[in-house]
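STRUCTURE REQUEST FORM
Protein name: ABC transmembrane type-1 domain-containing protein
Source organism: Levilactobacillus tangyuanensis
Requested output: structure tokens
Priority: standard
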Amino acid sequence: MSHQEIIQQLRGVVCRLRWLNILQLVPDTLVIYGILQLAFSSQVVMLFNVAFSRQQAVMVTVMFALIDLCVTGIRANDRLVGKRLIAQLKGHLTTSEAELIHRFERFK
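Status: completed
Returned output:
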């Protein structure tokens, strides 16, 4: 792969990581919401103004957690791909390329 192709792919990974960080907030919030509703409810748990039995509410919260885990896995894979791309870069980097690598490294 040429230097320009690597930089282009790295730009795509950085953009995707930015969106995944924003997307990660949704399942994180849903998991916390489900746990709080379970903790402070009795046999009937209200999730999004819908009555669930305690067992059903636990299953919904587990599904939220699985979605959260999947998004976390996608982010981890993208970080791994970005590290591999950076390892392939050789030679002198321009200022914009160095800044791109710095932006990637902030997604930890």
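Reviewer notes: The longest helix spans residues 3-39. The chain has one domain: 3-99.
Form closed.
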